[in-house]
Amino acid sequence: MTKINYSVTEPFSTKQLFDLVNDIEAYPLFVPNCVKSGILEQQSTYMIAFLEVEKLGFRKRFITKNTFNEPNNISLSLVDGPFKYLRGYWHFTQVDPLNSRINFELQYKFNSKLLEIAFTPMFREIMTDMVKAFSQRAKQVYYD
């Protein structure tokens, strides 16, 4: 199983950061390698959403159930996609009146050995780049 952990402190409120991460339909506008995204079902405490990512000719789509506790966290669980297992968490913590910490954790295992070998390094890079893109997006949305 592969694990990704990424943490960064940003000069924004937890609500602002939560809103950016939860705006899945905007991902293709700023998340590298995200070619398509959307919401399949929306309820007050969760959504079923999909992401389609592409890098170096590999294109994969996966669907997750995103359960949220606004503005503190979003948990992701696999509904469908090229994984045997996928679970993730976004945690947003106000560290002082002007700054919040984003913690992103993702654990996954592809459903075939071929995908595991071919796509794991790229998927890790895609997910890390995605988290970094939220920092840039926050500056564009809240400072410009």
What is this entry, summarized?
This protein has 3 helices and 7 strands, in the order E-H-H-E-E-E-E-E-E-H. It has 144 residues and is of the alpha+beta class. This is Type II toxin-antitoxin system RatA family toxin.
The CATH class = Alpha Beta
The CATH architecture can be given as 2-Layer Sandwich
Range of strand content = over 45%
How many individual helices?
Answer: 3
How would you classify the helix and strand content by structural class?
alpha+beta
- DSSP summary, beta strand count: 7
Family: Belongs to the ribosome association toxin RatA family.
Domain Coenzyme Q-binding protein COQ10 START: 13-134
GO molecular function: ubiquinone binding
Protein name: Type II toxin-antitoxin system RatA family toxin
